[in-house]
Design brief:
The chain has five helices and 15 strands. It is of the alpha+beta class. The radius of gyration is 47 Å and the shape is elongated. The longest helix is centred in the N-terminal third of the chain and has 31 residues. A four-stranded antiparallel beta sheet has the order 4-3-6-7, with no helix packed on it. Strands 8-9-13-12 form a four-stranded antiparallel beta sheet. Strands 11-10-14-15 form a four-stranded antiparallel beta sheet, with no helix packed on it. The N and C termini lie far apart (156 Å). A hairpin with a 2-residue loop joins strand 10 and strand 11. The chain has two domains: 111 residues, Immunoglobulins (Immunoglobulin-like), CATH 2.60.40.10; 141 residues, Sandwich (Immunoglobulin-like).
């Protein structure tokens, strides 16, 4: 009985030791195992308001603006015109054909309208004034892209001898918003002289195929085909110079100082202030070019001294000048020998 009790006590002791050992091992295992991460909790999303829209005055919205950055459309208006994306119509390359038209010629006037801007120029009109026309002939102008050119042509027969001016005006109705509104006009002067009827030319057996028609005109009459004026102005040196080109070679012995008169009128603010006959001399007498120079005069520079003044210069060349064949100058252009030649020039920044 006592032996049996010892066996039971020993068994209980072993069981107790096994329990203690197992418990210690489990505790160590728990300490060495890393903790399992806990997933973060998501916040409930808030409702966002639609972003504001970037707007530029006069344009369709193109993209959303960053919230909180104010947009100032008024700043767009302050952009210089030279930086705006706009067209710019310019008149260039004015031509007159034939170069020395007569009263029997149909004269062709042409000019190029060029868009020197960076945007398309919408459809517009081009006005063409000839002589003293109050109401011009207008032409519809199709749209012109950047750096593109269109040609405008007008034809007219002028039956009166004299000096004229042709003027082209782009965007005549001012419908095109341009980067430069001050360069739409181009002009050129020309002179019409007396011509010979085609029937008379054919009867004389002359070469009517000559496109310039110089042969019939020079064979029958002796006229002034071209007149130009230059001014030279520098400290202590100021005068006028005129170039007269005849249609036939002149007899230089008949080109005397008394054969020419030059009368000047000085205007300021549209009112006549002074007038005088200029003195001078022929620097060259031909035979194919006559060059007349005035003496020194303050009006060589005063005509352009301000924007409110200008000079009107009237030149008269007498018919005492003869061609080398002895034919008197047909200055009035009536197709018959004889008649003084008259031409009017203007000098100034702004003049009629």
């Amino acid at each position: 009985m006592q032996r049996q009790s010892r066996i039971v006590s020993m068994a209980a002791l072993v069981s107790l030791l096994v329990f203690i050992s197992t418990t210690a091992w489990a505790a160590d295992a728990v300490k060495s195992t890393p903790p399992v991460p806990v997933a973060p909790q998501l916040k409930t999303p808030t409702t966002l308001n639609p972003p504001s829209t970037l707007k530029i005055e006069g344009q369709t919205p193109v993209r959303p603006a960053t919230p909180g950055i104010p947009v100032k459309p008024a700043e767009v208006k302050g952009i210089p015109s030279t930086m705006r994306i706009q067209p710019d119509l310019v008149i260039t390359n004015i031509k007159i054909e034939p170069a020395n038209p007569t009263t029997y010629d149909t004269i062709k006037f042409s000019a190029e309208v060029t868009n020197t801007g960076v945007a398309l120029a919408p459809a517009s009109t081009v006005a063409v004034f000839i002589g003293g026309e109050t109401y011009p002939v207008t032409f519809n102008q199709p749209p012109i892209g950047p750096n593109a050119t269109k040609v405008v042509v007008r034809e007219l027969k002028i039956d009166k001898v004299g000096g004229y001016q042709v003027k082209f005006v782009a965007d005549a109705d001012s419908v095109v918003a341009e980067s430069n509104e001050g360069n739409n006009t181009g002009k050129r002067t020309f002179r019409v002289i007396k011509g010979i009827p085609p029937s008379a030319v054919g009867a004389a057996g002359l070469d009517v195929s000559n496109p310039a028609r110089d042969i019939p005109r020079m064979t029958i009459v002796f006229q002034i085909g071209e007149a130009n004026m230059s001014t030279y102005s520098s400290p202590g040196n100021s005068n006028f110079v005129f170039y007269l080109r005849p249609t036939k070679s002149v007899d230089t012995a008949t080109v005397e100082e008394s054969a020419i008169q030059v009368h000047l009128k000085y205007y300021n603010n549209g009112a006549l202030q002074d007038e005088q006959t200029l003195s001078g001399h022929f620097g060259s007498k031909g035979p194919t070019l006559m060059r007349w120079e005035s003496d020194q005069t303050p009006y060589g520079g005063n005509c352009t001294s301000t924007t409110t003044c200008y000079c009107e210069i009237n030149l008269t060349l007498q018919d005492t000048i003869l061609s080398q064949e002895g034919v008197p100058l047909d200055g009035d252009g009536d197709g018959q020998p004889g008649g003084d030649y008259q031409h009017q020039f203007f000098r100034g920044m702004y003049h009629p």
